[in-house]
Predict the structure.
Amino acid sequence: MKIFTGAQIYEADKFTIEKQQITSDELMERVATQIFNWLHLRLQGAQPKIHLFCGIGNNGGDGLAVARHLQEHGYNIEVYIVNYNEKRTDEFLTNLKRLKDRNIWPNFLTEDNELPQIAKEDIVLDAIFGIGLNRAPVSWVAKLMNHINNSQAFILAVDVPSGLFLDKVVTDPNAIIHANHILTFQSPKLAFFLPETGIYFNQWEILDIGIDAEYIAKTETEFDLVSKNEVLQLYLPREKFAHKGTYGHSLIIGGGYGKVGATILASKGALNSGSGLVSAYLPRCGYIPMQTAMPEVMVQTSKSDEHITDFNFDIKATVIGIGPGLGQHKETVEAFSKFLETNTTPLVVDADALNILSNNKKLLELLPEDSVLTPHPKELERLIGEWSNDFDKLEKAKAFSGQYKCVLVIKGAHTITLYKGKGFINTSGNPGMATAGSGDVLTGVITGFIAQGYSPVIAAVFGVYLHGSAGDLAVESLGYQSLTASNIANTIGGAFIELFRRPEAPQAQEQQQA
Ligand SMILES: NC(=O)C1=CN([C@@H]2O[C@H](COP(=O)(O)OP(=O)(O)OC[C@H]3O[C@@H](n4cnc5c(N)ncnc54)[C@H](O)[C@@H]3O)[C@@H](O)[C@H]2O)[C@@H](O)CC1
Ligand SMILES: [K+]
């Protein structure tokens, strides 16, 4: 799903209005009807007090139009105009007049007003600011926002939590609504998925307001959201006459004394994601553990017992996943550097292999084009340097992936894969996956996908999704605390099956009664 910028959303509204020959007011009415239906479906006529806080722009206009629908259906409402600005939009004014025509008189709030009483059983509709916010709200508005947040009432945000910018971080953490739920229009917003800006709400949901399909199809976006629908289109079906050679040969390189497990997890990831063959190259101490844990994996060893000191293996791999448990021993660094000078096999680079590259940036130039790098935040910082905020991080990471022509996978709650200036934001996964070895499994999964013939960027996007989805399935029976990397690796098969599971068809009325 495409993630539009603020400018694109305004453009999409304009395009839709012209093409569908509707007025801006009619588009707002669609929005308001959808929000009203959402609330009505859930409230079913229940009568909690609904406080509607409306700004003076079109976000406020949405709020006023919802207020009218709620009043027409007998709900118990209180409307407030948060009068932070004199520049009211036409749509706001039209909807204000419609309210007044129905004898609904909003409370106009300014700096001098007392803060309204909100009980924790009440509902708040937050329509103070939408995507038009371009500077931090003034202090009395921030105070009001704080008051709303502290009420413990259920807060439903219209389009975005008021105070959230689309393209920069919040400077005053007191000047933003903490929403329970966001009803956002047509496209999710980038800020929902970044660690610094994604903390101001619990859930988001898209309302389809009928933005023109042609605009959506033809407009290129900098970021896409990746869910099941997107990855299903990437899936390469298995052929009837396939043999193990059809699906490639993954080689996992890593491991050291006390860290052989990392390579076992990565090998499991590669094997379970469908790699035809998997080999591992380890120091000698890894030979028995690997052969015992993974009978399917072929093993060769470096000369030394405790860490890799040479890359003299005799394995014709389709792709190499390197780094889990590798360590940064002087001899390992030297051997890895030498290996990079001649290697042409596609690489997935993780963990200590990334750290070695960070310590010697010249080595980055030796990576084969389209290598996949999978840093966690600390490893990313070592690679690209410090960033001032999440938006700055994305810019720096994008520049890095362009400079070194690589696929950069920024691991996090919403892992972002960057390639050729475009970002793919993952939606699967859960906090239980922040556990030892989870990244090693991911390295293996991406390696396994490349082995099967997926391009590196698709392998990364698909692999990240499937890895997260395996975590989501596994957590259902284990809970967040007990989820382990082995569980994730063992549930990859389930995640494949889940991809093709269709939602259950609703049962016919007669059958239910029988
Ligand atoms: N036809 C349309 O344009 C549609 C707009 N929609 C709604 O319109 C919203 C965007 O509306 P607007 O562009 O009017 O903007 P907002 O309603 O988000 O903000 C209102 C105005 O306040 C001013 N402002 C920004 N930051 C401020 C600050 N810190 N203090 C004081 N004033 C500030 C800006 O001039 C801004 O235009 C969307 O989020 C969505 O809710 C929807 O109704 C869909 C259709
Ligand atoms: K809002």
